[in-house]
Amino acid sequence: MEGAQEREKLPSEEEEYERALVALSSLISGRQRKDGAQWAHAFEMMQSYLERLGLEEQLGRLSVIHVAGTKGKGSTCAMVERMLRQAGYTTGLFTSPHLIDVRERIRINGEPVDKSTFLRNLWWCFDRLEEKATDDSGKPAYFRFLTLLGFKVFLEAGVDVVVLEVGLGGRLDATNCVRSPVVCGVSSLGFDHMELLGHTLPEIAREKAGIFKPAVPAFTVPQREDAAEALHQRAAAVGTSLSLVRPWQAIQGAADVTLGLAGEHQKLNAALAVALAGAWEGRSAAAAAVQGARAAERASAVAAGQLPPEYAAGLQAASWPGRGQIVHDAVAGAVKPLASPAAAGSNGTAAEEHQGQEAESEALPRLSFYLDGAHTAESMATCAHWFADAVGGPQQPAAAAGSAQAHPGGLVTQRVLLFNCMQERDPQNLLQPLAHALRERHIGIHHALFVPPDSTYMKLGAGSEPATLSWQHSLRSVWEGTGGSSSSSSIGSSNGISNGISSNGSAAAPRAAAPPPLTLPPLPAVAAPAGLPQAAAVALASAQGPGSRSAVLPSLSVTLDWLRRCVREAPALRMQVLVTGSLYLVGDLLKVLQPPPQPQQQAVGTTRSDSAAGVDGSVNGLANGTVSDSGSRGGHGM
């Protein structure tokens, strides 16, 4: 084949990888997800693609755990994979979307597939599909192609188990071409992709339950009553059982486990993961062949409500970048606060006393990013509660919500929201729950920044055209409408706690002496969106002036430069940045923060709230790979 001969002439793997990304980008259709008829037709074509690749019969050799859901299905899959790997199995994990490099979607033993394996199998699939394409059926679109590629990689690797995350929905998802999984799971349900899945929770539940198969046991977590009923109806219709998982706190041994994935909500996902792993070990021929009696013992333990030690170790070691992840900026560095006599025995809160004691021995990061790719109403609220827990919100007095938090060691902490979401989503449904939950937890957002991602939905690699920012201006208006910044300090104005008066005029709780008010550097100027009336443009410029609490910035690099400049020019300042609304945004920020790869060294300056920054300690879980060439996602589920 001419294409294959041309590729053989390429002098380096990196150039071939670039060519592969171009080929993958050519598969991104550009059709809107709301085109339900096209979605159904595309699913029907998966059988044809499998036949062309000669994978139809081979697919039955894979021992699959299939997981659908709205929230937490990726985290559940990550925990299942890590437990089974800890138990001694060779694992395959297929998830979407990716954060930095497309190879993250296809993992062997927790590691993104290596470039050589990825390229060999990609071109094997690509060339055969192209060679056998007809006028009626060309090559599959992006997500379906990656699903087929994942199957091919897992078959070649001979993995013991494949943990398969649904991309979108379930019934018509590309992953649902697996006819005989060993066990199925449905994580928490919510409202997302309603243009395809339906506008009621029962409708969405029925689509998710489309992965159920006859005589294949299924598990789920507590759901809203009407959604649970829809799941049970679907299970009965296909001829299988649906079981509600045992609560995490009711599992013997769970209380002794610190989950690697941060957040109280992860306990629900962990309970589902344990049930799925145990059921797989109890039913899979592969498990019996590899682990023998030990597999059966673990399966029996799970059924009896006990947590096997291998599962406990796997749950503690599990990681899932971009979800409940904390990254401390190495460039901004850290500062050791001055010891404060008022830190202990003062009239401050217990949290402040604890922080004061830590200040005497620990350097504190100047600039920290709290990353969570939440993008539904329910997950945004969950994200807010995780952020509050991570920054110590529950112990803070209500007055702290409207003021910068004075640290007993002489520092001021300010909190920043960095947000974006895809235009197919309703920003009101995302920002309102976020703002409400933050207020409920007394967490003030001092600055809200709305920034486009560097990558695009339509191609692999950074976008070639600058963003118009019209969407980001709309997001900012919605945020202001929620009152999210109504009690926050102003950018460019005094940001310390002054005169002992809180933002609502009441006496603030007694605190350690606050440092002098801070004046932050001005934000970069941003032009008004094209076509905006002159009066509106003048109003916009005024609103984003020195006294504003929110702003639109043109890029992540500009945003990061401004944040670093803030902490550099204000030695008493720490900044905690909540990054949410989009996994695109989270992944692109991780890419910007990641240091250049160095041979035999891990990325520095990052920590994770889930105990590990990726599988190998790097920001994204890739071992010394060049990842700057594949930062976009290309979407998932279509």
Strand percent estimate: 5-15%
Provide the gyration radius in Å: 25 Å
Helix content: 25-40%
Please give the alpha-carbon distance between the first and last residues: 29 Å
| Main sheet characteristics | 8 strands, mixed
Number of strands: 17
Explain how this protein is built.
- The chain has 638 residues and is an alpha/beta fold.
- It is 38% helix and 11% strand.
- The strands form 3 sheets. An 8-stranded mixed β-sheet has the order 4-3-2-5-1-6-7-8, sandwiched between helices. Strands 9, 12, 13, 14, 15, 16 and 17 form a 7-stranded mixed β-sheet that branches.
- Strand 13 and strand 14 (411-419) form a beta hairpin.
- Helix 10 (266-283) packs across helix 12.
- The longest helix is centred in the N-terminal third of the chain and has 18 residues, at 36-53.
